[in-house]
Design brief:
The structure holds 2 protein chains of 2 kinds.
Chain A lengths: L2 E14 L2 E7 L1 H6 L5 E4 L4 E2 L2 E2 L8 E4 L2 E3 L4 E7 L3 H6 L7 E8 L17 E6 L3 H13 L5 E6 L8 H9 L31 E5 L6 E2 L2 H6 L7 E5 L2 H13 L4 E4 L15 E6 L2 E6 L6 E3 L8
Chain B lengths: L1 H7 L5 E3 L2 E3 L3 E3 L22 E6 L12 E4 L2 E4 L8 H7 L1 H6 L4 E5 L4 H14 L4 E5 L10 H4 L2 H14 L4 E4 L7 H10 L4 E4 L3 E4 L1 E2 L4 E2 L5 E5 L4 H14 L4 E3 L6 H10 L3 E4 L2 H4 L3 H15 L12 H4 L4
Parallel strand pairs in B: 3-16, 4-7, 7-8, 8-9, 9-10, 10-15, 15-16
Antiparallel strand pairs in B: 1-2, 5-6, 6-14, 11-14, 12-13
The chains are: A alpha/beta, B alpha/beta.
Chain lengths: ~300, ~325
């Protein structure tokens, strides 16, 4: 069940031009949050809990970027795109943030005994789409699944948290909680396990060639098709559409995180819908409550 | 001692056309789903009544996206009455409604007068429904909706047709997108309405200057939120002067003071709408705030406030 809290901001800084990293204290939210879920933020000008303005009026949905279970904090990585996010960026450490969440259906992590489905996991990000995927990588690594990461962006300045993602692999893990080799805590049998640091494969591409490969991230992916069994993706719709259509030819399942203009965030207002195929019919599903993560093959991709 | 405490507690209960509400606060149709969506944030049993999402005879897919756009102190929506149809609602939501102690008011819509009557008839025999709110004011569908609500003769025709098939309290939801809202209110009153809801959204539009195209998939949409509050207060005031029916006032209410403004203008109850999206606990805060206002001002019964701004109005 989702929470409605006034959370203390513990850290808020611009990490690249126009991109902000906001960390707030919310241990109960951390305990519930799953990768791919989001929080719904009141960005309005507030003073001691009272809204001073009715403009902007609506909340802003922002995906959960990472959680720190030890410190009980949630981090958001967001881009300033309009008045709501601009106001959000003026909030400072020590301020309270009015947060609803965690909301939505996140990514489904592999839970199979089939070793093939816990290898060949590709995580494909476009621009700010890296935000929820960082949390996903955190959880995949916790589950002893080592993904290959592909990040595309307009230019080097828009490639975010690359070093932090690589650092996730370098973290010591599992010393206290790892059971005997080959047995997962939930009874799943796995092959190779690791306790120490690993080097994550992170492939980069930029539209202008200022970092990584010059071109689209999908070009990097296609070079690796044979090793990929499952794709998680978040980014601009044309990128996700391209990933979905390419993967469909190869019969590779894809989980996509969609975005739409949102009002309530809880499935009541039917504003943020997207077209989904179900039982040979096209229907509108709610991005906030039925998503934001959907199976790409169910999504009706407008050309 | 117990009796004394009880007698000091001001009366918050109101009666809207036969629907007994323990307090005057309800939800605006379309902003609160079927109630269960908000159960994480709101104890639905605290509401005076629950007005649920609009229901039609057949399932409706709804309009193309984008369906909303934020505007100054409000938003435009063009959902297009997306709903699973009356038979689905009967099967899947009526059992939930029956578990609630709060009266449930179902909002109904149709393409034709016969559609309204069929849906009303089905809900009348279903049980678990305390009243019907007849939406003759949706600006976002091509047929029905506003087409009925903008013409007093047609508005009366829909009202009479629904009246003929149900004994449930009948609330007619009026549109502000008319030259004379009082004329429509009088017409539906004569046709058998028990109460009135006003106002529905104001027809509006937004254009994206970068793409140079209308923002909404449906081009136009309904404006709601604090931006429309003065228009809504005026409509409640005007209708309350002319028509004896109880009014559920709505349009941009986001605080207890806003709710009081509607009550003073002539609303017996108030519906909380768009603010639910910004503050999911707004209904509860307003209920608490009304009780505090009554106590602080020594008012024993909230019904004494209804329309009382009229007594205090200056004569020009």
């Amino acid at each position: 069940m989702s929470l409605l809290i006034n959370a203390e901001i513990v850290k808020h800084q611009q990490v690249a031009t126009g991109y902000w990293l906001l960390e707030f204290l919310a241990p109960k939210l951390v305990a519930k949050a799953k990768p791919g879920q989001f929080v719904h933020l009141n960005c309005a000008v507030e003073h001691t809990g009272t809204c001073l303005t009715s403009d902007p009026f609506l909340r802003r949905p922002v995906s959960i970027h990472r959680v720190d279970s030890e410190r009980g904090t949630v981090s958001l990585l967001y881009k300033v795109v309009g008045r709501g996010t601009m106001l959000l960026s003026t909030k400072q450490a020590g301020d309270l943030l009015d947060v609803m969440g965690p909301l939505g259906q996140g990514f489904t992590l592999p839970t199979t005994d089939d070793r093939r489905l816990t290898t060949g996991i590709a995580v494909v990000a476009g621009g700010i789409g890296i935000a929820p995927l960082y949390f996903l990588v955190q959880r995949l690594l916790d589950d002893q699944i080592m993904p290959v990461i592909y990040i595309g962006a307009h230019s080097a300045a828009d490639l975010l948290v690359v070093a932090e993602i690589k650092a996730l692999g370098q973290k010591e893990r599992g010393h206290t909680t790892t059971p005997s080799p080959g047995t997962h805590p939930k009874g799943r049998v796995r092959g190779t396990r690791w306790n120490g640091p690993i080097n994550l494969d992170v492939y980069l591409a930029t539209d202008d060639g200022s970092a990584g490969d010059h071109g689209l991230v999908t070009a990097l992916l296609t070079a690796h098709w044979d090793n990929i069994n499952l794709i998680y993706t978040c980014g601009p719709k044309p990128m996700m559409r391209a990933v979905a259509l390419l993967a469909k030819e190869k019969n590779i399942p894809v989980q996509v995180s969609l975005e739409e203009r949102m009002a309530c965030g809880v499935g009541a207002c039917l504003a943020c819908v997207c077209q989904i195929k179900a039982e040979n019919k096209t229907t509108y599903k709610r991005v906030c409550a039925d998503g934001p993560v959907f199976n790409a093959e169910d999504v009706v991709w407008e050309s | 001692m117990i009796n004394k405490v009880t007698s000091n507690k001001p009366n918050m209960a109101v009666n809207v056309g036969g629907i007994k509400m323990k307090n005057p606060v309800t939800t605006a149709s379309g902003t609160f789903g079927f109630g269960s969506e908000y159960s994480a944030y709101v104890d639905v049993s605290r509401l005076g009544a629950l007005v649920v999402k609009g229901v039609t005879l057949e399932p409706r897919l709804g309009n193309a996206t984008p369906r909303i756009v934020e505007t100054p102190s409000g938003m435009l929506n063009s959902i297009g009455l997306q709903n699973p149809g009356i038979d689905y609602v009967l099967k899947h939501y009526i059992p939930y409604f029956k578990t609630l102690s709060t009266p449930v008011i179902v909002n109904i819509s149709g393409d034709t007068v016969a559609d309204y009557a069929t849906v009303a008839e089905k809900l009348s025999v279903a049980g678990g429904v305390a009243g019907l709110e007849v939406n003759i004011s949706c600006p976002n569908v091509k047929k029905g909706g506003l087409a009925f609500g903008s013409n007093p003769v047609m508005a009366a025709e829909v009202t009479a047709a629904v009246r003929a098939v149900t004994k449930l309290p009948l609330i007619i939801k009026l549109s502000p997108n008319v030259t004379d809202i009082v004329a429509v209110a009088e017409a539906v009153a004569r046709a058998g309405a028990d109460a009135l809801s006003l106002i529905n959204t104001l027809l509006g539009m937004a254009i994206d200057v970068r793409t140079r195209r209308p923002v909404l998939g449906n081009v136009t949409g309904g404006l709601s939120g604090p931006a429309i509050k003065p228009v809504a207060v005026r409509a409640v005031w005007q209708v309350h002067q002319a028509v004896a029916l109880p009014i559920i006032g709505m349009g941009g209410i986001s605080s207890v003071d806003d709710a009081l403004e509607f009550i003073l203008a002539g609303a017996t109850a108030v519906a909380i709408g768009t603010v639910n999206f910004a503050n999911p606990q707004a209904t509860i805060e307003i209920i608490n705030g009304l009780a505090t206002y009554l106590i602080d001002n020594g008012i024993k019964d909230i019904n004494d406030l209804v329309g009382s701004a009229n007594n205090n109005a200056r004569n020009y």
